[in-house]
Amino acid sequence: MLHRILRAMAANAVGQATTLLIQLISVPLLLYYWGTAYYGEWLLLFTVPSYLSLSDVGLVSAVANELAVSSAQQAYRRSVVLLSSGLMAIGYLSLLTTTGCYTVLSTVPYQHWLGIQRITEEESARTLIALMAYVVLCLQQELLSGVYRAEEQYATGRLWITATRLAEFFALVLLVVSGGEAHQVALAFALVRGAGLLSMWVDCRRRFTWVRQLHPRYVEWPVIRNLLSPAMSFLVFALANAAVLQGSILLIGALLTPVHVVTYTALRTLNNAIRQLVGVVTFSIWPEFTLAIAQGFTHTAIKLHRRACQLTVWFTAGAIAGLELLGGSILHYWTNGAVEPEQPLFTLMLLATLLYTFWNTSATTLIAVNRHQSVALWFLMGSLGALGLGALLLPQWGLAGLATGFVVVDALLVWVVLRQSLRLLEEERMRGLLQSMVTDFGWIRQLKRTGRATSATKEIES
Fold first, then answer.
1. Which of 208, 211, 363, 405 might form a disulfide with 389, Cβ 3.0–4.6 angstroms?
2. CA atoms of 20 and 395, how far apart (whole Å)
3. Residue 457 confidence (pLDDT) above 50
4. CB of 248 closer than 8 Å to CB of 390
5. How far apart are CA 414 and CA 78, in angstroms?
6. Which has more pLDDT, 367 or 44?
7. Nearest residue to 370 (alpha-carbon basis) of 233, 269, 248, 249
8. Burial 167-194 (b: 16+ CB within 10 A, else e)
């Protein structure tokens, strides 16, 4: 299990590093070859179909969880039904939403509304069609990566997707340098993603015998209906995050000034860096929670929960301490002195991040087995409540008022989520969890001894 977790963490870290590398290189590259105006119009066009990633209404994650449960219980007949039904359902939903989206766009002056002038109407249409196909293929590939997770090869699935993204990036570079336009890049994205999906499909059929049995005759719509509740809850998480990200900016813009928007966005970016690193851990242990709970290994699940919470909370606390000390210097060099770590705003945002880390890590136990419906609703209501409280406090307290709202709500979510997680883990108790997080570091010494023993064994074998 430890080997799988470490491989998963490495794969997720590679994915994060790839995303950062692509962003760092693509922005100056596209600005140089396309110019600011054309690049800006490309970003606007890319934003429109990106919302189609929600067209699966959370089914990708819900089906992937159930696939992992079925494989853990060696119920491969159900795995065939789940994957066949999931691929078909997501295909139908994607076709419906893309058709509706393109129909609407073809009847409204979206180019005028978005201020698109350099990209022609014909080119815009081609770009949108290709990008819509690209998003649909992304959803199918994400679901197919759930097969690797179900077979305890989560890292391999993530690396497939990372490799596909790198291939897309190389295609982007080649086309842009050679004078390619937006619709050609969009088509390349769709073709590369399609090739990646096909390659993954061939690899899955080669590795896992049950995948070869997939067929439309195994589609069972009642299976999809039973998954709609957890699937919609995944969608609720996405909507709550969108409300926090966009709603906070709109609130600040409406009640304060654009300068405050810049300050808040810069500080939030530093906080989000911590959350993304914590996400590497939570996404890596997610498959292990599914496996342990599905097989009834409650003691293993409790140990995983304790270690995950301990690791992420202490890491976040250390990162927060570092940002409190060095945040001013980082912001000064990053923004060329335009933004400073305003207090108590910065400290409140860091505190909210610490609380978020705790409840989000604990919630992984529920998310891993599709038992997160209540948490999703609490998160949505809490997000809206934080924005409401922020709207009341912003005029008197400034940006610190909005941050206070998020601290209050994240503290409430810690209590709500922990109670539900402990109820799922049955034998776990709040006192035992907190005591373990604060005092139990013996597993680190054991991990070092295991690592040294493994190294010694390899040396002897060689």
1. 405
2. 36
3. no
4. yes
5. 35
6. 367
7. 233
8. bbbebbbebbeeebbbbbbbbbbbbbbb
Helices and strands per DSSP (H, E), number in the chain: 15, 0
- Ramachandran quadrant class, 57 (left: phi over 0; alpha: psi -120 to 50; beta: rest): left
Return the amino acid letter for 115.
Answer: G
Residues making up the chain, counted from first to last: 462
What span, in angstroms and rounded, lies between the C-alpha atoms of 322 and 328? 11
Which regions of 166-211 does DSSP assign to beta strands (E)?
none
Alpha-carbon span 427 to 298, nearest angstrom: 8
Give, for 175, the enclosing helix (H) or strand (E).
Answer: helix 154-177
Pick from 11-25, 242-256, 312-326 the range whose average pLDDT is largest.
Answer: 312-326
8-state DSSP, 181? -
Alpha helices by DSSP H, listed for 51-120, are: 59-72, 76-107, 110-114
Q: Which token pair is 13?
A: 């870290």
d(CA 306, CA 434): 8
Q: Provide the pLDDT confidence category of residue 443 given band limits of 50, 70 and 90.
A: low
List the structure tokens of 239: 């909507």
Distance of CA 212 to the CA centre of its chain: 29
Question: Mind listing the pLDDT tens digit for each residue in 107-147?
Answer: 888 778 777 888 888 888 899 899 999 988 999 999 999 99
What token pair was written down for 445? 């010494």
The first and second tokens of residue 329, run together, are 């210097």
> Does 458 score more than 50 pLDDT?
no
φ and ψ at residue 298, rounded to 5 degrees: -65, -40
Residues 6+ apart with CB under 8 A from 384: 243
Kindly report the backbone phi and psi dihedral angles of residue 152, in degrees, each rounded to the nearest multiple of 5, phi listed first.
60, 30
For residues 340 and 331, is the Cβ–Cβ distance under 8 A? yes
* Amino acid at site 319: A
Q: How many CB atoms are located within 10 Å of the residue 250 CB?
A: 12
